[in-house]
Amino acid sequence: MSFRSVLSGDVRSAAIAFLGAHLVCGELRARIVETEAYRGLDDPGSHAFRGVTSRNRFMFGPAGHAYVYFTYGMHWMLNVTAQEEGIGAAVLIRAAQPIDGLETMRRNRPKASTDRGLLSGPAKITAAYRITREHNGLDLLDPASPFHIEPGEPVQEILCGTRIGLSPGRGDDLRWRYADAHALEWVSRPLQELTSLLEKIP
DNA sequence: CCTACGATTCACT
DNA sequence: GTGAATCGTAGGC
């Protein structure tokens, strides 16, 4: 099953499909272990909930492209757009396990004291890969792009939980956060919600 | 125009 | 566990 076909379906399925995939940029390579799903139609936690703005416009574009935004005055966030054109949806890449290019990642993340903390958070990934606004809209499924996503080993078991950092009443109760159950040492924060088998997730 | 705050991280108690 | 750093954006006036 290709990314393209999964991305045309529900953004939660897309978020699950990206677990185990590789984020590649030149010599840098890491395995995605944690994602979150956001969609505009019925999800108050999504930037797309209130319709198109100049910031979120890529969420409404074709699937498989980068939606990169700046927050807290200092951090960049990387998302992969999902669902059909005209529907605002994206998958936030929250954590990854470093595979290649660790020296460069360490240089880009001087404050990380251990390799486990190199990519264990959405803003850590963009710092390590030096992803910023200029990468907004990039086609992440195109190997010719400056950085892109490749299929990896399938994930055997996943955990799901509530998404991080949402205000009460803004979708904080939706369990649209997903992680590879066998790579929990690389996630941004513990998942305390119950375990779910891959085939049981919608 | 003006203001509050965020899909976070880090240092410190 | 708590608070500071830091600024573009959304939403209200």
CATH architectural label = Roll
Gyration radius, in Å: 15 Å
Strand segment count: 9
Unreliable stretches (pLDDT < 50, length at least 5) are none
The largest sheet is: 9 strands, antiparallel
Helix and strand succession? HHEEEEEHHEEEE
Q: Might you state the CATH topology name?
A: 3-methyladenine DNA Glycosylase, Chain A
Q: What is the CATH level 1 assignment?
A: Alpha Beta
- Overall tally of structural domains: 1
Descriptive report:
By secondary structure, this protein is of the alpha+beta class. The protein binds a DNA duplex (13 and 13 nucleotides) through β3, β4 and α4.
Itemize the secondary structure elements and their pairings.
Layout: H1 3-7, H2 11-17, E1 22-25, E2 28-39, E3 66-71, E4 75-81, E5 89-100, H3 102-108, H4 122-129, E6 148-150, E7 157-161, E8 177-180, E9 195-197
The protein binds a DNA duplex (13 and 13 nucleotides) through residues 36, 38, 45-47, 50, 53-55, 69-75, 77, 79, 92, 94, 111, 121-124, 127, 163-167, 188.
Short description:
The protein is of the alpha+beta class and 202 residues long. The protein has four helices and nine strands, in the order H-H-E-E-E-E-E-H-H-E-E-E-E.
Features:
single chain, 202 residues, alpha+beta, 3-methyladenine DNA Glycosylase, Chain A, nine-stranded antiparallel beta sheet, 4 helices, globular, DNA-binding
